[in-house]
Amino acid sequence: AQTVTQSQPEMSVQEAETVTLSCTYDTSESDYYLFWYKQPPSRQMILVIRQEAYKQQNATENRFSVNFQKAAKSFSLKISDSQLGDAAMYFCARGDDKIIFGKGTRLHILP
Amino acid sequence: GAVVSQHPSWVICKSGTSVKIECRSLDFQATTMFWYRQFPKQSLMLMATSNEGSKATYEQGVEKDKFLINHASLTLSTLTVTSAHPEDSSFYICSASGLAGYEQYFGPGTRLTVT
What we know:
- The complex is a heterodimer.
- Chain A is mostly beta strands.
- Chain A is built from no helices and twelve strands.
- In chain A, strands 2, 5, 6, 10, 11 and 12 form a six-stranded mixed β-sheet that branches. A four-stranded antiparallel β-sheet of chain A has the order 3-9-8-7, with no helix packed on it.
- Chain A is globular, with a radius of gyration of 13 Å.
- The N and C termini of chain A lie far apart (about 40 Å).
- Chain B has no helices and eleven strands.
- The chains are: A mainly beta, B mainly beta.
């Protein structure tokens, strides 16, 4: 089975600090996409960042950046200058014709 | 842009009845729509993929006769839970793709409670 693994069920970070969420995945495809989604208490899924597997350059969106290691099938998310509004469930996902989600990491921001 | 709506946002139904959930892409044509189920404190589980005008493709273990999916137009897909039972109570989320092909836009979800 092609899976997405998030090994950290919960994490906490002090406000304004940096935190990294881990994700590994398994795929036999050569062309695919990787995503990080945020799900706040409202449960609306929000796309945080995406990475095309054929691109070597790591994607960046403001305070959010990824470390994409294709050979290792690793796709971690770094959140810089953490804010209280970043508190949410974060899901790593792999996609081609459909998206497969990891089990999620609940991120707590400590004031 | 790329807004997806779901209706209703919350529904309560009696055991044995059927309930229909609508998913609409408001400002783009969705060639493909996806239906997910999410139990409390768990991840999203893909139930089925539907393409406009075609039969839905169900994931392994999902009963296609229980969860009827119709994708009649490029902006509307419906999920009907037939003969609902309490174990069908869950949060159902739809998503739609069509703009860039690989990216999915998610609806706000529907909370189903079967009593």
